[in-house]
Write a structure and sequence with these properties.
Helix 7 links the parallel strand 2 and strand 3. By secondary structure, the protein is an alpha/beta fold. The protein binds ligand BV8.
Length: 243
């Protein structure tokens, strides 16, 4: 299966990749729905929604602070590095991530779209201006913009639209790629979960990397059951070997 997948990757000119929380699992970042997942002790609706922030901005901000502390201790794993290496050898390439942990960028990925934002950026709730999280001790939580309005994490919450340009770039890549690689996502969250189906519908080869079956596993051309941190480096090595 790895050899077959590596051959498909080598033959493809245009490659698109969709990643989810599973690609960061081996870095130590908790996934959303796995054992001990982020949502275990909370429900998504309780915290990652505009209503939750309106009701209790401090609670939501502290949950993201807790996540930032966990993520700050995590390093990119071999899966992130393998995807950065694939970007450097593919003629056309786009890495589309649902993750907000910035680990793809830290691993060197540059042709990257963050569909759900980035936990290290904040956004003014009035002016929508985006800036890096202030790295000074915060006088109040959540901090306020110079205009006086509350700052919020620059991430996409449930019920919020995705950034138009990010979604457009992702959709365009799904429509035009020859190979679509889906790594570490339960494919439950829309509209990200539709991207592999768009690619499939346009005739792309779809390869899935996940230890568990997902709702799209029966649709993909090659399903590689296992950890991304093990399978992706093996795929890159086999791709080189098939040169
Ligand atoms: C929108 C940022 C509409 C924030 C996230 C019913 C009620 C309410 C809403 C909806 C509904 N039905 C549909 C919706 C829409 C909703 C949605 O899809 N809900 C789902 C839950 C049903 N979607 C939205 O609300 C989106 N917006 O639709 O807007 C709209 C339209 C017009 C105008 C206004 C509005 C916005 C969705 C974005 C939400 N934000 N994150 C934050 O992180 O705090 S989503 C969140 O889930 C993360 O981004 C995460 O990445 C994403 C998906 O989860 P996964 O990444 O797949 O992670 P998960 O834990 O689920 O799975 C991990 C996988 O890895 C597993 O398969 C596991 O087997 C695998 N794995 C584990 N270890 C490894 C591994 N794989 C490889 N290697 C390993 N080692």
């Amino acid at each position: 299966m790895i050899t077959e997948a590596a051959k498909r990757i080598r033959e493809a000119r245009a490659i698109a990749v969709l990643t989810g929380a599973g690609v960061s699992a081996e870095s130590g970042v908790p996934t959303f729905r796995g054992e001990g997942g982020l949502w275990r002790q909370f429900r998504a609706e309780d915290l990652a929604t505009p209503g939750a922030f309106a009701r209790d901005p401090r609670l939501v901000w502290e949950w993201y602070d807790w996540r930032r502390q966990k993520i700050a201790a995590c390093r990119p794993n071999p899966a992130h590095h393998a995807l950065a290496a694939l970007e450097s050898v593919a003629a056309e390439f786009l890495l589309i991530t649902q993750n907000i942990d910035d680990l793809h960028r830290k691993a060197g990925s540059r042709r990257l779209v963050e569909l759900h934002g980035n936990i290290w950026r904040v956004r003014c709730t009035r002016e929508a201006t985006v800036s890096a999280l202030p790295d000074v001790p915060l006088a109040e939580i959540p901090p306020r913009c110079g205009c006086g309005a509350l700052l919020r994490p620059d991430v996409v919450w449930f019920g919020e639209s995705l950034p138009v340009d990010a979604l457009e770039r992702a959709m365009q890549a799904a429509e035009t790629c020859e190979l679509f690689l889906v790594v570490g996502t339960s494919t439950l969250v829309q509209p990200a979960a539709s991207l592999p189906l768009v690619a499939k519908g346009r005739g792309a080869v779809v390869i899935e990397v996940n230890p568990d079956p997902t709702p799209i596993s029966h649709l993909v051309d090659v399903s590689l059951q296992g950890k991304a941190g093990e399978i992706l480096p093996a795929l890159l090595a086999a791709r080189r070997g098939s040169a």
